[in-house]
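Now for a chain:

_____
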Amino acid sequence: MADFINSILEFLSQLGYFGIALGLMIEIIPSEIVLGYGGYMISQGHINFVGAVIAGTIGGTIAQLFLYWAGYYGGRPFLEKYGKYVFIQKHHIDVAENWFKKYGVGVIFTARFIPVVRHAISIPAGIAKMSFTKFTLYTVAAILPWSILFIHLGKVLGSNWADVKEFAQPYVLPILIAAIILGVIYFLVKRTKKTTD
C-alpha cells in the first residue's frame, strides 16, 4: 500500500499545483497525506506556499462539491448504490444525515474537522437542497485552515513528511475543540432565534 501511495504522490508531484488539487479531488489518498506531501514539495523548492494552499483549497472544495451534487441530483438511493466507489458507506451517510438534521447548515463547517462525517456531510447538504453559495462558503472556510496546517507541517517536516498525521495530532485537537464550540454556539443561536420568532 505504501508503494502504491508513493507512486501516486510522485505522479502528482510532476503536475505541481494541479497535482495537489487533483489529489484532493479524487480522494484516493487522505487529504492530510496529499497536503503534507505538498509541504514537502515546498521544502524542496518545487512550488510555493501560497500556491499550494490555493491548490489544496480548490481541490478539497471541488471534491466536496462532487458529493454535494451527487446528493442534490442523485439523492440517497444513488449514493447508497455508488457511494462505495468513493469510500462512502451507508453508515457514513446515516451519521452525516443525522448531524445535518440536528445541527443545520452550520455543521457543514464544523464537521470538516471530525472523522467519519468529514466527507459525508456534503451529501445531506445536497439532498436537503442547501444553498450552493452558502455550502461553498462554509466548505472553503473549513478547508482553508486545514490546507494551511498540513502544508505547513509538511514543509517543516521536509523529508519526514510521511509522519505528518502523527505530528499534526497536537494541532488538530484544539482545532477540533474550537470547531465543536463554534458549532454549539451556532446551534444555540439558531435555537434561540426560533423560540423568539
Summary: The radius of gyration is 17 Å.
